[in-house]
């Protein structure tokens, strides 16, 4: 631009919407077009002779010309800054500053062109604010949010997605995301996804991720087609962590199963109680009737001493049987309360065996059953209650004789087993069915059997006594091949190595 602007150029500069400003070599205003007047509010007369930093209150423009001259091979400098209008309001300006050469190519000043970019800056700020809000929303979302292209490859994941399946975006590139799906669900989920994608339809599945840290994460996955200008561009999807819900469902199922089992057990216990009460009542009635009948006979005159002694013997046996039944009921009650008393003293099992066999031998002979015992040639001493341990043996032997046919055999054996003494009572009876084995030590188990052989408390009492001694008891049986009841009692000292 020379010293005098031709009229046609003058008119052109006056009517342009941008602010065109000429500065002398001292950076003072020599030309201020109408665009500058509209933008800033000062007239050309008001602006003439002033510097832009002072007029516009923009210190960033100070010495701009000097800086431009110092930069070799650069004739124009552009930048954006905040400026002020005459009324004090501010605006964003995109400015360019060019060197204005003189007639011989020497610089005689500068030309500044200013454009109001306030609207663009506000739009950019709003966009950045919107993007920041969107990023914060995506980062804080309780849902995993992802975007897939039309081939099913992930192009965006928010942090929740990575938290759910353990893969970052690079690790999930291509079809790597399918590797995070639980192997048992993978084929179903991948197949349904590609069917939906090929048809351009929404997709939804419930499945599991096998997280890289080993956790199993249940998710509800959903996706919908995404369109740009009416054309499909991919899928946007969500992943909801439903692991707590699935855990609650599993817990509920377990509770329902447990409730059902408790109900079954309660019903079984009720039946067993009713059956046992019937057996106990029947036995007590028989014992009492026997006693009453014998008493009535004894009240008659003319009985011989032999007849009197016979009736008294029957009364004694009925009373003893009644006492045994009552004792069994009380012992079961004590076992259930954990108050069964054990009076410990040294017990020689070999001697205990001999005494039990002598007691039971007459009954075995009467039934035509061979009864034998064998004890290993070792120390069989234990610390226990001899009366209660004998009762265990008598109960087991009585049970074995009861269910062993004539010409059968019942054996009583003992051996050292580590620091314990292990006792086995084996019979050659018909055995116990597999479904009944878990219940043989239940209260009143015998009461369910067709033979109705007693109240069914013997094995329950035996188990309670053994466990009160710190031992354990179990049964082995094969139908048709007999049954073995085994129990252990801690010895007074460990067996030699």
From TrEMBL:
Membrane-crossing residues?
none
* UniProt-recorded Gene Ontology molecular function terms: kinase activity
* Family matches, as PANTHER family: PAC DOMAIN-CONTAINING PROTEIN (PTHR43304:SF1), PHYTOCHROME-LIKE PROTEIN CPH1 (PTHR43304)
- Name the source organism: Nannocystis punicea
Which top EC class applies here? transferase
- This protein's name: histidine kinase
Catalytic activity reads: ATP + protein L-histidine = ADP + protein N-phospho-L-histidine
Domain of life (superkingdom):
Bacteria
Q: Where is the PAS domain?
A: 5-59, 130-200
Domain named Histidine kinase: residues:
279-493
Coiled-coil annotation reads: 245-272
